[in-house]
């Protein structure tokens, strides 16, 4: 998978060198390029924003540098992802869909967003998805892009060593994950639930499923359709 990121804060993405995604890059499974939006400006101040037409608070990102940057990285087989609190909610199902794509491009906006014509134009060249991480406002798209890249990247075949570990996770089966325990069997007076030491795999599977149901009912009843 090839990932291009356009941002005014390229240094934000230094963390993509470490951990699981860093290894995936080293192994050639994911190829990530970060582009500085200001490299596509032509004025002395490398201006990327301006006041909004129609008035209002904040600044809007001008379309020209975005147009030039996207002309360079967008191809007809790309999916352009625009993180935005006004986008559709990003879910594990969307992460799965995106993990099968050959090319993703992230357009990280700042301030009050990007001139709408950039998204409208890009829609004529490639598929575009405006994605929101949740019902809160971040300062820009960078942190959201990072979250999407991590959620998608770990689903790319070969990135996670044991693919079975992906299947039992929260959200994959529509339920939250069961609680996990490791050694020691007792810690600060708290024992591990005895069933997990029983060696009875059937009973362990049922217990875990009950835990998933109980946790989902308590924390996220909306996932069970009875919020
Ligand atoms: N940019 C600002 N807020 C955001 C959010 N909640 N999700 C995605 N991108 C954003």
UniProtKB/TrEMBL annotation:
Its EC number is 2.1.1.228. The keyword Repressor does not apply. Its main location: cytoplasm. Keywords: Cytoplasm, Methyltransferase, S-adenosyl-L-methionine, Transferase, tRNA processing. It is found in: Cytoplasm. Belongs to the RNA methyltransferase TrmD family. NCBIfam families: PRK00026.1, trmD. HAMAP family: TrmD. This is tRNA (guanine-N(1)-)-methyltransferase. It catalyses: guanosine(37) in tRNA + S-adenosyl-L-methionine = N(1)-methylguanosine(37) in tRNA + S-adenosyl-L-homocysteine + H(+). InterPro entries: Alpha/beta_knot_MTases (IPR029028), tRNA_m1G_MeTrfase_C_sf (IPR023148), tRNA_m1G_MeTrfase_TrmD (IPR002649), tRNA_m1G_MTases_N (IPR029026), tRNA_MeTrfase_TRMD/TRM10 (IPR016009). It comes from Antiquaquibacter soli. One of its GO terms (biological process) is methylation. One of its GO terms (molecular function) is tRNA (guanine(37)-N1)-methyltransferase activity. It comes from the Bacteria. Residues 1-224 form the tRNA methyltransferase TRMD/TRM10-type domain. Specifically methylates guanosine-37 in various tRNAs. The keyword S-adenosyl-L-methionine applies. S-adenosyl-L-methionine binds at residues 109, 133-138.
């Amino acid at each position: 998978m090839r990932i291009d990121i356009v941002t005014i804060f390229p240094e934000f993405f230094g963390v993509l060198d470490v951990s699981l995604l860093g290894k995936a890059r080293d192994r050639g499974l994911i190829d990530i390029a970060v582009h500085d939006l200001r490299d596509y400006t032509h004025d002395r101040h490398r201006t990327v924003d301006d006041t909004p037409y129609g008035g209002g608070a904040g600044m809007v990102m001008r379309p020209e540098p975005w147009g030039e940057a996207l002309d360079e990285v967008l191809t007809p087989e790309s999916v352009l992802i625009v993180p935005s609190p006004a986008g559709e909610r990003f879910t594990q199902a969307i992460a799965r869909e995106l993990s099968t794509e050959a090319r993703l491009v992230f357009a990280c906006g700042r301030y009050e967003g990007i001139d709408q014509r950039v998204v409208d134009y890009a829609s004529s060249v490639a598929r575009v998805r405006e994605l929101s991480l949740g019902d809160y406002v971040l300062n820009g798209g960078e942190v959201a892009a990072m979250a999407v890249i991590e959620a998608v990247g770990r689903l790319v075949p070969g990135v996670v060593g044991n693919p079975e570990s992906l299947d039992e996770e929260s959200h994959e089966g529509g339920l939250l994950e069961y609680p996990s325990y490791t050694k020691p069997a007792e810690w600060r007076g708290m024992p591990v639930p005895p069933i997990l030491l029983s060696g009875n795999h059937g009973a362990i599977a049922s217990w875990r499923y009950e835990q998933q149901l109980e946790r989902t009912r308590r924390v996220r009843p909306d996932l069970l359709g009875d919020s």
